[in-house]
Amino acid sequence: MKLSGKTAVITGAAGGIGQATARLFAQEGASVVIADFSEAGQEVANRLKEDGYQAIYEKVDVKVEEDIQKLIERTVQTYGKLDILFANAAVTNDDPADELSLEKWRRTLDVNLTGVFLADKYALIQMLKQGTGGVIVNGASIHGHAAKAGVTAYGSAKAGVVMLTQTLGIQYANKGIRVNAVCPGYIETPLMKVLPSEEVQKLIDLQPIGRLGRPEEIAKAVLFLASDDASFITGTSLMVDGGYTAR
Ligand SMILES: NC(=O)c1ccc[n+]([C@@H]2O[C@H](COP(=O)([O-])OP(=O)(O)OC[C@H]3O[C@@H](n4cnc5c(N)ncnc54)[C@H](O)[C@@H]3O)[C@@H](O)[C@H]2O)c1
User: What are the structural domains, with CATH classification, of the chain?
Assistant: First the structure.
């Protein structure tokens, strides 16, 4: 098992990619903290426990500093330490700039960029205190690298996550803390199931592999970055996008 004895916090773990990652981490031996604004996170934790894994749910709003502080405190109270953070929670927004309200711009940036910063900050404080290193994986996107009309606030936030990752990667490398980002392409999540099939086909056509990705395929990439298999990798973004950004 690749994460035996490790403790991992996963934000947005009630959703598609976060949930798949929580299960894979648990299968690989980690105790997992399901951190999400949605109380569906409690069900995710319950199912993991029923299957014999170590899991707790913590309700957090990632853009609220006190929530993140409490999340890390509860993690340490419960499992004694923090080894891995997957800062994955995000919201989507497709509004073109001329239609995007300041309120929606701020909300998207608050959750998708400030939320990642806050989780990273308090994870780093705890990891530095422990003095035994650690791993952070930030949830970015192909749209942190490649523009698409409409992803004004979302893409700006994700590009911020990419640079935040690079900055932290070089800053904490000598403390044994690795910081990387995962950049998913279009993934088969509940949202895709409610889109008209011609809309989904348009997204598929942008991915040379010719299909949507599966949450489990992102989870495997996050596991790689979180495990010792990626021991010489920091400050980078891993594209898991069926070839989208290679075109
Ligand atoms: N699904 C895709 O096609 C795709 C593509 C590229 C990048 N991503 C990124 O992958 C990550 C996960 O996406 P997903 O598809 O699993 O989305 P999802 O909507 O299924 O899950 C996101 C989770 O984040 C939670 N969340 C939202 N705001 C929050 C807040 N303020 N505080 C705490 N939790 C909050 C939601 O409750 C939800 O459970 C996101 O960072 C997303 O931007 C997804």
Answer: 7-187+214-246 (3.40.50.720)
